Amino acid sequence: MENQLENVPSQKNSWLKSITNRIGLQQLIILIVLFLIYGFFAFMSPAFRTSNTLTSILDASYYVGFLALGVTFVIITGGIDLSIGTNMMCAAITGGVIYNRFGAPLWLALLAIIAMATAFGLLNGLLVAKLKLPAFIATLGTMMITRGLSSILSNVQTETFPLRDSGDGWYKSIFRTGNNFPTGVILLLVMGIIAAIVLNKTKIGRYIFAIGSNSEATRLSGVNIVRSEATAYVIAGFFAGLAAIAYAATYTTIMPGAGAGFEMDGIAAVVVGGTSLSGGVGSILGTMIGVFIMTVLKIGLPYLDLQPHYQIFITGFVVILAVYVDIYRNRKKAK
Amino acid sequence: MWSFVLGVSVLFGIIGCSNGDSASDTGNSGDGTVIEVVAKGFQHDFWKAVQSGAQQAADEHGVRMNFVGPKDETAIAEQLEMLNNSINKNPGAIALAALDTNAQLDAIQQAQSKGIPIIGFDSGVPDAPDGAVKATAATDNYKAGAIAAEHAYEAIKDRIAANDVSRIGIVSQEVNSLSISQRTGGFIDKMVELLEADSGVGQGKIAVTGHDKFRNDIQEKDAKVVIELRVPAEVTDAAGKTEAQALLEKSDIICVYGSNEYGAKSIINADDGLGGRIGITEDKVIAIGFDSGALQQDAIRNERFYGSVTQNPVKIGYEAVSLAVKAAKGEPASDVDTGVEWYNKDNIDSQEIQELLYQ
User: Fold this and answer.
1) Which residue ranges in chain B fall short of pLDDT 50?
2) What percent of chain A has pLDDT over 90?
3) What does the pLDDT read at residue B71?
4) Domains in chain A, start-ordered, CATH in brackets?
5) Angstroms from B231 CA to nearest CA on chain A
6) Which ipTM was obtained for this model?
7) Which residue of B has its CA nearest to A300?
8) If you write DSSP's letter for every residue of B133-201 in order, what string do you get?
């Protein structure tokens, strides 16, 4: 009899509980925030409601999305990677040099982009995991190295990737077809799912979480934390390579020495998504939602006919608000 | 300890080797004169063309030329460092394209007191203290903007007559530097002048909106023509594309103007995402650009862009160093307008125009 009475109120909340059990309360909150922001812009601007705008939002989300997916792994270990932005652009411009200057086939140039970005990820991994340099300093250093390298390798010249209607324009269709269908979202989702599987269902993923929670305890339990921590940075590098291809496909021309600042777009998306900068906590779903919140803001604010300084101000405000909500919730939980 | 020494030695070795192909200390040292050229940027192909012109002049006059520039046109502090370095080297003369004269005032005054003449180039050194800048070699950017407006007006005047309301959009990289502000301002002023003289429009019927800098008092609802100026929040591909897209999606838009290569590129990128709204036929939005670059040249050839205005970057660099050499010798030097050309599908592949363009 008592059991039946107790069951009644929890049945009412069980659908909410089942959702939060599956995706986490933080993720639910920011998902609602995303819909609210999107709805606000759609309400305020008729031009925002078109399918072209949606394709635009998706276009702008690819490179940030890949950067954010990769750096999620690093942040969960309690580290940071400031080089992902410049690494991305250095790899992109190198691909351009290989295609334009050396006349290599496009597929080879794209492979070279991934290889180069991953190699710098490996460098970061060695510096942080093996040589034990603080992640902030080490990746700040590789950020400057890749930034200078992009100018050196390109002889300080812009590299232009093949245009859509040239023979080699196929790489653009990976992200958006000639009919404006956003194929890139499929690639982003697939890579997101793979990243989620690696993070949540594999040994290496569990070790990455463990290192972020308590690296000493993890080390003492016999886990090779050097290899696991370095892997997180290699993953970030690999995803920076994907981001480079997405950027080239979307914007076509790559300028030397570019990329500084893009890492902040990626990191902000990850943090807004609920991954803690102190490590040990995080989710791919949260990162993806964070990416879309940042992108919808970036694309939507101009539709309100706001001056550019207000746009950046509001974006910063939203980031702080999102992080505050997360800290506040954690503090409440700790009590 | 020893690995540190080894590391540092290797580092200096690399620096020593790379000095061989850096941009500095080139040209034969005929009479030992060194001209320091401090540009507004270094990444951009435009500055590479300026550099080649400067090198040509240096070779012709038998002087050494050192060409430096900051990472981008917002790096005011970085350019100030470079300017200070140049002054400390006691060159024969300095050619400067100042990002912000006020920020560099102390350095300019120091150069003046050391007797180092300054030659302005590109956007020059606006509001410099008297006597500091001997001459300027630059594009008359205001006139260039007006030329763009004249061509745009020819293409759209019939549509303006036929429509109830027409919108002309401008994508401007920023409104701080003199060169871009003048190209934007020159376009707006000339367009307003032409529209006021147009019997179908007339005075008080043109609203200039968007960024605060050029806004006028006429309300959009009272206007027959709206000129809307958009400046992206940050100088990135994504932000430029977004602002251009917001313009192209307005229902009454008939013309868009990008006041530099970044503006033109943003319009092209935005148009890619909208399935081709710009073009030269009656039903398409007229697109006007500035400078060149691979994307813009392609857009001109494919009749997506109605036409663009190009500067003569090689001549800017050439005249900057030539004037600097004169100033270093104590000879009188006067301003040079390095000129612009209008190019479109018909003349883009002519030799005269191709010499001015860059990829």
Assistant:
1) 18-29
2) 56
3) 79
4) 51-334 (1.10.3470)
5) 7
6) 0.75
7) B242
8) EEEEEE--HHHHHHHHHHHHHHHHHHHHHHSSSEEEEEE-S-SSSHHHHHHHHHHHHHHHHHHHHSTTT
Cα separation of A152 and B39, whole Å? 19
Q: Are B167 and B226 spatial neighbours (Cβ–Cβ below 8 Å)?
A: yes
pLDDT of B74: 72
Q: What is the distance in angstroms between the Cα of A149 and the nearest Cα belonging to chain B?
A: 12
DSSP H or E stretch at residue A79: none
Domain(s) of CATH 3.40.50.2300: residues in chain B: 19-139+318-339, 141-311
Please compute, for residue B65, the number of CA atoms within 13 A of its CA located in the half-sphere on the CB side. Answer: 29
Question: Candidates 3.40.50.2300, 3.30.930.10, 3.40.1550.10, 1.20.120.1630; correct CATH number of B19-139+318-339?
Answer: 3.40.50.2300
Pairing of strands B166-171, B206-210: unpaired
Q: What is the pLDDT of residue A130?
A: 95
Mean pLDDT calculated for residue range A283-307: 88
With CA atoms as reference, the chain B residue closest to A51 would be: B274
Structure tokens at A273: 């998504």
What's the mean pLDDT when you consider all of chain A? 88
Is B331:B325 a contact under the CB 8 Å cutoff? Answer: no
Query: With an 8 Å Cβ cutoff, is A301 touching chain B?
Result: yes
Looking at domain B141-311, which of 3.40.50.2300, 3.90.960.10, 3.40.50.720, 3.30.70.100 is its CATH number?
3.40.50.2300
Q: For the residues A174-201, what does the mean pLDDT come to?
A: 92
Q: According to the model, what pLDDT value does residue B3 have?
A: 66
pLDDT of residue A7 exceeding 60, the answer is no
Q: What are phi and psi of A68, to 5 degrees?
A: -65, -40
CA dist B314 and B358 (Å) reads 10
